[in-house]
């Protein structure tokens, strides 16, 4: 009488439960780190959008041969603020080039552009004032950021 050996096919229920427990443990450990990473990524995306708005305002001023403003809206209890790009004609009327873009991950807490909440460029692409800066704060991370513009129009993130 020969004993017939069965080959083991498949996996047992216990092995499946152990693998699922390991996966669940790894996910619970990486979840908070993923949330922090996502918040920082959203903040950096909005900072890049603001820097690009400065560049777009400068190029539009030279292209349209008129003054172009980067109008900033400060944060309040309901929103994080925002920005829009406006072209000003010789009569002082403003035409939106880029509509108001609200900030979601950042709060625009202050500006230092000659006491006004805007920056701008003249028809030659030069800044209207002596420069200034924008103070931003992460709404979830509470990190502080600063975007500064010097008198020559160069924009820097600090």
Topology:
Elements (H helix, E strand, L loop, with lengths): L12 H52 L2 E7 L8 E7 L5 E9 L3 E6 L6 E4 L10 E7 L5 E6 L5 E3 L1
Antiparallel strand pairs: 1-2, 1-5, 2-3, 4-6, 6-7, 7-8
Which short descriptors sum up this protein?
minor pseudopilin epsh fold, 4-stranded antiparallel beta sheet, 158 residues, alpha+beta, 1 helix, elongated
Short description:
With 158 residues, this protein is an alpha+beta fold.
3D structure, described in words:
- This protein is 33% helix and 31% strand.
- The radius of gyration is 27 Å and the shape is elongated.
- The strands form two sheets. Strands 3-2-1-5 form a four-stranded antiparallel beta sheet, covered by helices on one side. Strands 4-6-7-8 form a four-stranded antiparallel beta sheet, covered by helices on one side.
- The longest helix is centred in the N-terminal third of the chain and has 52 residues, at 13-64.
- With 158 residues, it is α+β, with helices and mostly antiparallel strands.
- It has one domain (13-157): minor pseudopilin epsh fold (3-Layer(bab) Sandwich).
Strand line-up of the largest beta sheet: 3-2-1-5
What is the count of helical runs?
1
Low-confidence stretches: none
Percent range for β-strand residues: 25-35%
List the domain count as a whole number: 1
**What kind of sheet is the major sheet?**
4 strands, antiparallel
Distance between the termini: 83 Å
Using the 3D structure, state the CATH architecture. Answer: 3-Layer(bab) Sandwich
Question: What is the gyration radius calculated from CA atoms?
Answer: 27 Å
Q: What is the fold-level CATH name, i.e. the topology?
A: minor pseudopilin epsh fold
Shape: elongated
CATH-defined superfamily: minor pseudopilin epsh domain
Helix content: 25-40%
Order of helices and strands: HEEEEEEEE
Q: Whole-number average pLDDT?
A: 88
- Class per helix and strand makeup: alpha+beta
Please report the first level of CATH classification, the CATH class: Alpha Beta
The tally of strands reads 8
The oligomerization state is single chain
